[in-house]
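Minutes, project check-in
Item: structure for the 292-residue chain
Input as provided by the requester:
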Amino acid sequence: MRDLADFHHPISDLFNQPKTASDWEQYRISKEQVAFFHENGYLADIKLLDEHQIEALKKALDEVMDPKHPLHSLFHEFHSNESGDPNKVLFHSLGHWRIAEAFHDAIWNPAFRMVASQLLRDRPVRFWHDQLFCKPAHHGGNVAWHQDYSYWTRTIEMQHLTCWCGLDDATEENGCLQYVPGSHRWGLLEKPALAGDMDGLMAMMTEEQKANFKPVAIPLKAGHAAFHHPLLVHGSYANFSPRSRKAFVLNVFADGTVSDTNEPLLEGVPVIPKGEKMGGKFFPLIFDPERL
């Protein structure tokens, strides 16, 4: 039994690693896709996983969801149901990369790392934290409208990025992501309860913002991902369908981001004093375009 955060490199053969600069080119997205991201605040339908990788991650997910897992203490957060309503279940956790080899190595997926760097304006990328979001069939809970950075203001400057990747097909029926295009230009709003009232954020928006609140659904096949800006307003509705909706999230930031607190940045992580650059065991450098 070991803490996989001690390993800042892949530890399995689940994801083939490019050996030359030319090997990386297959993962590069187009200038048009990058421009779409900066204009709208998101980029969807990027294939990250093949069938074998999906199955490996689903198997790992089933194992780490067990509260009796021998490494359960390594989670930063673990919510069997963050909503608190047994009729609207939302499993949500942080820290499974420390426990399961498949989720550890997903951080070093070259398809993910290349796109993350491009969307962060070709800068080196550091890992921030991972998340699991699982909505069971028939009674899966919602994720309220929110901006990711409203929960991350303990870090500055705001140069973060979120990648959401499905392990099941995500549809409007089973609670796929919903984005509000252009809302990343609205500035920072107050944070609502993540698994609370779907529309709680509305009380924190201006009349102009409410008038421009026009969500679009982001259905995705399993193994495909959507990337979004840290200020983009997004959420997902409850799952009352007969199919589950399992997904994992990788959050990253541009190298050079610093701590803005003297409290632990994550539960169980040593303090990085305010003003100091984030790095070390829990925030590894995962990609540097200058080192290809």
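Outcome recorded: Residues 41-66+77-291 form a domain with the Jelly Rolls fold (CATH 2.60.120.620).
No further action items on this chain.
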